[in-house]
Structure formats: C-alpha cells, structure tokens
Amino acid sequence: MLPAMFYQIAICMLFCGFNFIVSSCHQTDILNILPNQVSSSSNFLFGTSSSCYQYEGAILSDGKGLNNWDVFTHEAGHIKDGSNGDVAVDHYNRYLEDIKLMEDMGVNGYRFSISWARILPKGTFGGVNMAGIEHYSKLIDALLQKGIQPLITLTHYDIPQELEERYGGWLSSRIQDDFSYYADICFKYFGDRVKYWTTINEPNLMAVRGYREGTYPPARCSGVFGNCSAGDSEREPFIAAHNMILSHAAAAGIYRTRYQKRQGGMIGISLDTQWYEPFSNSSEDIAATERARSFYVNWFLDPIILGRYPKEMVQILGSNLPDFSKNDLSKLSYGLDFIGINYYTAKYIKDCLYSACEHGNTWSEGSYFVTTEKDGVYIGQPTEVEWLFLYPQGMKKIVMYMKDRFKNTPMVITENGIAENDNLKPSIADTLNDIHRVNYMHSYLNSLANAITDGADVRGYFVWSLLDNFEWLDGYKLRFGLHYVNYTNLQRTPKLSATMYKQLIYNFKIQLETNTAQN
Ligand SMILES: *[C@@H]1O[C@H](CO)[C@@H](O)[C@H](O)[C@H]1NC(C)=O
Ligand SMILES: *[C@@H]1O[C@H](CO)[C@@H](O)[C@H](O)[C@H]1NC(C)=O
Ligand SMILES: *[C@@H]1O[C@H](CO)[C@@H](O)[C@H](O)[C@H]1NC(C)=O
C-alpha cells in the first residue's frame, strides 16, 4: 500500500492550490465527496493510452507477421538497453487484467493500436489472419462490457516488414493501397462497436525519425543528419509524409463513404505536438516560430484539413515538396472528424533564415534553432525525461492555436504524460509515489479546462500511459505508466497517480464549472 501521507498531500495539493503547507485543507471532507463514477456523467472521454508494439509482446503468436520494429530492435545498437518488444508487457495475454485496472481507475476510454502485421502478416501480399481479428474483437467487447470506449489507432509506427522489403514502405505510393485495404478490414470487423478511430500516430515524428535522422526504422538518412547506409534526409521525409497524408485520406474516404453513416463513429489522426514559444519578440523569431509550427504539425494538418501544404513549406522547399494531383485533392476532401493531439512539452524557436545561427536546422527543416534554454533559464522545470520540461500552459496554447487555425475542429488529447527514469530513480517506492505525475496531470488538465472554457471543442483526454512499457529507443528505462510493471514477473502495481485519476477527473470538472460560473 502507498503511504497515506503521500495520498493526503497530493489531495491537499489539488484542492488547496498547492498551498498545502498552509494547511487549511480537510482531506477527509474531500474524500467523502469523491464520486464513484465521475467519468460516466458526461461524454467527455477520460482514459489511458497504449500502443501495440510497446505493450503486446506475443511477437509470433497466433499467426502474427513480423513488422518493422520487430526487425529493427533485433539489430544491434538501436535500443539503449539492448531490449525489444518481443514480450513487452504481455498485454496480448493479460488484457483482461489490464481492463480491470482501467475499471479501478474509473475511466471511460482506452486508446490502443492494432498491430497491422497481426491482421495482415504480409499486408496485401497474403491473407487476413483471423486469429488477429478475434483477439481485437475480444478486447473491444471486454472494454465495452466495462463501459470503456475504445479509441483505436490503426498504426502506431508499425508496418508489416513485408511492405518495407517489397517496395520501401512509406516511400512508395503503393503503401496508400495497402493502408486503405488494412483500414477497410478494421472498419468492417470492428466498426460496429468502435466509435473513435485515428489512422496514424505521429506521422510527423515517423517522417523525421525514420527518414531524416534515421533513428527509427527504416533508419534512412544522409549527410550531416546521421550515419545511415542509405537515404536522403533532405527529400525522403517529405515523400514519406506525402504518402502518410494520402494514406490517411484514403482510409478516411473509405470510412466516410462506406461505414460512417451506418457505424456512426469519428475518424482522425494524431500528431506529435510541442508548444513553440518565440525566443524573442523580434519579427524574425516570431516568423520562425510560425515556420516551426508549419514544418512540424501543419505539414500534415494543413493538407488534410485545408487541402494544401503550409505556405512557409512551399516557399522554402519548392520542388522538394511533392505536389497533390487533382485526384489526390479529391481524396483529401475527406479530411477528418477530429484532431488527435499528443502534447508533453515546449521549446523556444529562434530564426536562422535572416540571422546566422551557430547551429540550427538546415533549410529543409525550416531554418530555425530549437532550444529549451534562454539566458541560462529553462523554458520549464526539467524532469527525469531529458526532453520533457514542464509547460502546462502550453496545453491551452496548442489547443487554442488548433482551434483558430482549423475552425474549431473537434480535438482529443490522445497523449499527455511524464516518466520516471530507472537510471535516476532506482527505488520502486519512489516510482510508486509518483506525486510528480499527479501534479503534472493536474496542471495540464487545468490548462485544458481553461481552453475548453474559452470555446475549444475538446472531446477527450488520454494520459500516456496505462502501464510502464517499452519506450522505443529508451527501452524499458523510462516508466510512463500509471501502473508500475515489474519486468521480471510482469506484475502490475498501481502508482499513486492511478489511484488519484478519479480525483483528477473530478477536479477537472470542478475547474470547468468554476470557470463557467466566473464567466
Ligand atoms: C558518423 O560517424 C562518424 C564516425 O564514427 C562520426 O565521427 C560522426 O560524428 C557521425 N555523424 C553523425 C551525424 O552522427
Ligand atoms: C513579447 O511580448 C509580449 C507582449 O508584450 C510579452 O508578454 C512577452 O514576455 C515578450 N516576450 C519576450 C521573449 O520578450
Ligand atoms: C519483481 O519480481 C521478482 C520476481 O518475482 C522479484 O524477485 C522482485 O523483487 C520484484 N521486483 C520488485 C521491484 O518488486
């Protein structure tokens, strides 16, 4: 059990504006008014997020084919601790136990991804694996039985290895047909019960890591960008991205024309976002900040929602940016129903186009310098995650930015979270007493509530992540879970944040009501 003191301090912090030292806080009263099922009282989705490669394990069970991450993690040198997702947290076999954990938290949503190679071991070059279909069907039913809405990601970085080998994966326009064939199968078998779909998780990160830096599969890059055996860092990211955009469009088209009317769900895409703050108020830095937004997030959302690439990209990249044909443009008209936002942290942006930067992003990256520090002060409090600085106000800012640019298209926060680092925090007691995560969620959720009060159409919030899991290049050393996983016996233990999630949801609703009353 967790020491009661931690629990009380955390509750106190939530309800006394963090002035728990000046203790006018009556914990017991607060515990008494805690409703049991706060989340069932509205349609707003509160949940946790996961992805197949980071969770499932069962690498070859029941006819699953190999995917790009299965192959990549088995090549030496890619993953810091030499680990892989062969077993991960064995969610494939333990999903019922994991749904029980969700039930205990009182949430009404669960975001997970389907393993493409589990459904289509060889993409369109082989048959449908019915055992894979059955697995996800059972998972969906078990969630719904507990009143938990599934939000399904069709691909969370993983593609069948066959497609990589046959035609170079995302670099080929053939992937559009493969992806839409796969999406169609998922809508057909699961869409009667699933009301929230996203096509691709973080295509912007995938394009950058896979084809510019070469740090994610297929590990392609060139020149100053990294040491890869092949690639073209200045062109390939845009080609891969173009195919991701059109794959989304093709899948959205299938959903909208063949399934949506009957099934009544929504389809979107999840982008990796960071809040970019100008380094100074110079017009150059302000323009560079807007350029950074265009070169990272608007790169995908502008074509999908507005039907064209952002003007900053067109100006700088010229013919390096692929064109949309007439046929592409008609596909793009299917757009999306909601924007999935993954938000964790913020960066400063400094111009490198009009003023020389000692080092900064190259022209093909938009010519700006990214930093987390100004005059020796960090943009937000550092955390145990190297790239994550606390910047809760950015939650409201990114949501309001999307609201203004995309005419208040509905939004879902598909990821937000923080980790403990085993290298810095080896004691399990410290990891379980994750007050830092409770505070993080509290402050980011308050910022989100303020955005909603100011008119943003946000439909849900999914914290990354339900369980500690395989954190890509960091292996198992970063623990993003609301539940601790012992990687020896795979036992799950709730952290303080898991037991507090109900309280955080309740607090979020109070914050919304208070805001409304004040307006
Ligand atoms: C590539 O490898 C060489 C030799 O190991 C090293 O000096 C260089 O810094 C590496 N370049 C990048 C971009 O990682
Ligand atoms: C830029 O100007 C705004 C509004 O005057 C101010 O709040 C902000 O602190 C300034 N930022 C910088 C980096 O000077
Ligand atoms: C994890 O499980 C193993 C095997 O049961 C056990 O020996 C170990 O103490 C556990 N570790 C923690 C941190 O609980």
TrEMBL record:
<dbReference type="InterPro" id="IPR017853">
    <property type="entry name" value="GH"/>
</dbReference>
<dbReference type="GO" id="GO:0008422">
    <property type="term" value="F:beta-glucosidase activity"/>
</dbReference>
<keyword id="KW-0326">Glycosidase</keyword>
<feature type="active site" description="Nucleophile">
    <location>
        <position position="415"/>
    </location>
</feature>
<feature type="signal peptide">
    <location>
        <begin position="1"/>
        <end position="27"/>
    </location>
</feature>
<keyword id="KW-0378">Hydrolase</keyword>
<protein>
    <recommendedName>
        <fullName>Beta-glucosidase 18-like</fullName>
    </recommendedName>
</protein>
<dbReference type="GO" id="GO:0005975">
    <property type="term" value="P:carbohydrate metabolic process"/>
</dbReference>
<dbReference type="InterPro" id="IPR001360">
    <property type="entry name" value="Glyco_hydro_1"/>
</dbReference>
<dbReference type="Pfam" id="PF00232">
    <property type="entry name" value="Glyco_hydro_1"/>
</dbReference>
<comment type="similarity">
    <text>Belongs to the glycosyl hydrolase 1 family.</text>
</comment>
<keyword id="KW-0732">Signal</keyword>
<dbReference type="InterPro" id="IPR018120">
    <property type="entry name" value="Glyco_hydro_1_AS"/>
</dbReference>
